[in-house]
Design brief:
This protein has nine helices and twelve strands. The protein is α/β, with parallel strands linked by helices. Strand 4, helix 2 and strand 5 form a beta-alpha-beta unit. Helix 7 packs parallel to helix 8. The protein is globular, with a radius of gyration of 20 Å. The site of adenosine-5'-triphosphate has 24 residues, from helix 3, helix 4 and helix 5.
Length: 337
């Protein structure tokens, strides 16, 4: 870090990852450390994940500070993911952030996790005013900025895209390993798929529904009639085509000139390919968040904290309660004009 450079430390803990990122006020990411909780079996257990976060916090903080070459006394701001997310996990991150801000006597700012996925995408790709497809374990949102907020143009009516892929992968016996999320393991199998199996395709207006698709794919899986590679491929093709269709319609409706793909599922090469081809057909620029910033990370919280704080927002400790269901379209984003 250059002398006199101001920087913000961001804490992410909305779900299974505990992350600490450090960003300068100019938008350089100096560190992005994290530790992931891997459940022994099944999905995330919020309290176990929270315990993991509490145990990992000091190590992840130390790693971020050492990578960035920053001393705590040089920090100007602490940001934390205030929501949406799992209660016990959010509270653990908020406690770490409050303690740091109080001890260092610097401002605290609560950040919306969904906004942060968009902002790190904009920072890393240079997209200015895109239609964003944000797809992760808990969210499937098509959004674009309009009149002070990120508006939601389309979303899932039931389960999120990442969750759909994860549940199917678990049913197929795939295991979540460090550095290999279930969606990525499924992507590998799908790459060897050859036969497209017909599955439910449900787009209602601007919204999609994935639970019928998941049930149908899982039922076929247990019938053992098709290769797992073919079913993985077919599940991806159907689900990705649905989100791509809605994104394309939002693009036509808003007449924006950029598309941004962000969130954990943005790491998927096939989804990137589908969205890129739609963007190109509309003569718009396609942007995808780099892999290391696609899944949950502290850097996106630190950077969104900088944007919020430098545009007049801060969160006094007594107002820093977590917001489990804080929707994207309820967040003011005064840094966008
Ligand atoms: P959110 O609160 O934003 O919903 P999250 O807890 O789901 O966040 P993310 O890290 O944003 O966390 O997204 C995780 C999801 O991304 C998981 O469902 C995971 O399987 C999926 N994923 C990661 N890599 C890939 C990939 N290569 N292909 C498909 N899905 C992927
Ligand atoms: Fe996320």
């Amino acid at each position: 870090m250059k002398p006199d450079e101001q920087c913000c430390l961001g804490v992410e803990s909305t779900a299974d990852d505990f992350g600490v990122g450090i960003a300068t006020f100019k938008g350089d990411i100096l560190a992005n450390a994290s530790s992931g909780y891997v459940p022994e079996e099944g999905g995330i257990h919020p309290r176990e994940a929270a315990r993991h976060h509490a145990e990992a916090a000091d190590k992840v903080l130390a790693e971020a500070l050492s990578t960035a070459g920053v001393k705590t006394k040089d920090l100007k701001l602490i940001a934390f993911a205030q929501g949406p997310g799992l209660g016990p996990c959010l509270r653990t991150g908020a406690t770490v952030a409050r303690a740091l801000a109080s001890y260092l006597d610097i401002p605290l700012v609560g950040v919306n996790h969904s906004v942060a996925h968009i902002e790190i995408g904009r920072l890393q790709t240079g997209a200015v005013d895109p239609v964003t497809l944000y797809v992760s374990g808990g969210n499937t949102l098509v959004s674009a900025f309009d009149a002070a907020r990120y508006r939601i143009f389309g979303e899932t009516l039931d389960i999120a895209l990442g969750n759909c892929l994860d549940v199917f992968a678990r049913e197929a016996g795939l295991k979540h390993k460090k550095g290999m999320p279930l969606g990525a393991a499924l992507e590998r199998l799908a790459a060897d798929g050859e036969k497209l199996v017909s599955l439910p395709y449900v787009v209602k207006g601007m919204d999609i529904s994935l639970s019928g698709l998941l049930t149908a794919a899982t039922t076929l899986l247990h019938k053992d009639e098709y290769r797992l590679e073919d079913l993985s491929y077919s599940l991806q093709e159907h689900a990705f085509a649905m989100v791509t269709e809605v994104t394309e319609r939002a693009l036509a409706h808003t007449e924006k000139h950029e598309v941004l793909l962000t969130g954990g599922v943005a790491a998927n090469k096939r989804l990137q390919e589908m969205l890129r081809s739609v963007a190109e057909e509309h003569d718009t620029k396609f942007n995808v968040v780099p892999r290391q910033f696609a899944t949950d990370n502290g850097a996106m919280i630190a950077w969104t904290g900088v944007l919020a704080y430098t545009h007049g927002l801060a969160t006094p400790v007594k107002e820093s309660f977590v917001k489990l269901r804080w929707r994207l379209d309820k967040v003011d984003v005064p840094w966008i004009k």
